[in-house]
Amino acid sequence: MSQNQARSVMKRVALKYCGGCDCTYDRPGYAKRLLDAAEGRIRWVTMDDGGFDTILMIHGCPAACPEDKLDPGHPWRVVSVRDDSVAPEEIVMKLID
Predict the structure, then answer these.
(1) Integer Cα distance of 90 and 71 in angstroms
(2) What angle (nearest 5°) sits at the alpha carbon of residue 10, between those of residues 6 and 15?
(3) Which residue, among 27, 28, 25, 66, has the nearest Cα to 47 in the 3D structure?
(4) Which of 30, 54, 75, 79 is the most exposed place for a label (fewest CB within 10 A)?
(5) For the CA atoms of 49, 45, 56, 90, what is the dihedral angle to 10 degrees?
(6) 11 with 41: CB under 8 angstroms?
(7) How far, in Å, CA of 54 to CA of 95, rounded?
(8) Can you tell me the distance from the alpha carbon of 44 to that of 11, in angstroms, rounded to the nearest whole number?
(9) Which DSSP state fits 73?
(10) What distance in Å separates the CA atoms of residue 77 and residue 14, rounded to the nearest whole number?
(11) 31: Cβ–Cβ under 8 A, 6 or more apart, which residues?
(12) Cα–chain-centroid distance for residue 41?
């Protein structure tokens, strides 16, 4: 399979970060480990890109403020990360299921 073909079959997931106002863990470090674990299996897009059915929301604390800003009738599946207690590979498996 060519690289272009692999990209076309990869799951598209929108990546959304909170503002980081009250982080309780190393959010950038955890996000990097998560993105590394997903390499070759997920094509990351922004909320503006469209063409996705899942959003990974990386929050800095349990408040998870950005989830409150989603339209209540949104059609997406949301996977939220509020701390670094879950192994990145486990999050990736939730995203690609």
Answers:
(1) 27
(2) 135
(3) 66
(4) 75
(5) 150
(6) yes
(7) 7
(8) 8
(9) T
(10) 10
(11) 17, 58
(12) 13
Query: What's the length of the chain?
Result: 97
Q: pLDDT tens digits, residue range 62-86? A: 888 888 888 888 899 999 999 999 9
Separation between Cα atoms, residue 57 and residue 80, nearest integer Å? 5
N- to C-terminal Cα separation, the chain: 22
The 10s digit of each residue's pLDDT in 11-40 is: 999 999 988 888 999 999 999 999 999 999
Q: What is the pLDDT of residues 44-54, one digit of tens each?
A: 999 999 899 99
Q: How far apart are CA 9 and CA 19, in angstroms?
A: 31
CA atoms within 13 A on the CB side of 48: 0
Tokens of residue 95, six digits: 């995203």
